[in-house]
């Protein structure tokens, strides 16, 4: 990260890309944030009508923001943008795939676990 003003302590927010139940639960837990000036949110609710390009754009925006420490994304939504999720390699924000009520977690699809297995030689 040479040449940048990178300070992990400035990263104070969680972001989420998920279905309505997941996002609502996390918002009720207190992660919601809307920037007063730019009106940028730190969450995106995805349903069956949400275009893949919108999900891609939100993923790109959240991973480029300097105030986000962790990006949570429902695994079944991550599957829709799998090439982008697999390409993402930065430490911050950390991208974590989470299950949803309707879609259980499948470790064989998780990009972070795949990367760890490669490093371990599994």
Automatic annotation (TrEMBL):
Subunit composition and interactions: V-ATPase is a heteromultimeric enzyme composed of a peripheral catalytic V1 complex (components A to H) attached to an integral membrane V0 proton pore complex (components: a, c, c', c'', d, e, f and VOA1). V-ATPase is a heteromultimeric enzyme made up of two complexes: the ATP-hydrolytic V1 complex and the proton translocation V0 complex.
For the region Disordered, give the residue spans.
Answer: 101-122
The protein's UniProt keywords, in alphabetical order, are: Hydrogen ion transport, Ion transport, Membrane, Transport, Vacuole
**What protein does this entry describe?**
V-type proton ATPase subunit F
Q: Its Gene Ontology molecular function terms?
A: proton-transporting ATPase activity, rotational mechanism
What compartments host this protein?
Vacuole membrane
Gene3D superfamilies reported for this sequence: ATPase, V1 complex, subunit F
Pfam families according to UniProt: ATP-synt_F (PF01990)
Give the family from UniProt: Belongs to the V-ATPase F subunit family.
Q: Tell me, what does this protein do in biology?
A: Subunit of the V1 complex of vacuolar(H+)-ATPase (V-ATPase), a multisubunit enzyme composed of a peripheral complex (V1) that hydrolyzes ATP and a membrane integral complex (V0) that translocates protons. V-ATPase is responsible for acidifying and maintaining the pH of intracellular compartments.
Q: Single GO cellular component annotation?
A: fungal-type vacuole membrane
Q: Do you know which InterPro entries this protein is assigned to?
A: ATPase_V1-cplx_f_g_su (IPR008218), ATPase_V1-cplx_fsu_euk (IPR005772), ATPase_V1_fsu_sf (IPR036906)
What is the phylogenetic placement of the source species in the record?
Eukaryota, Fungi, Dikarya, Basidiomycota, Agaricomycotina
Predominant location of this chain?
membrane
Q: How does the protein associate with the membrane?
A: Peripheral membrane protein
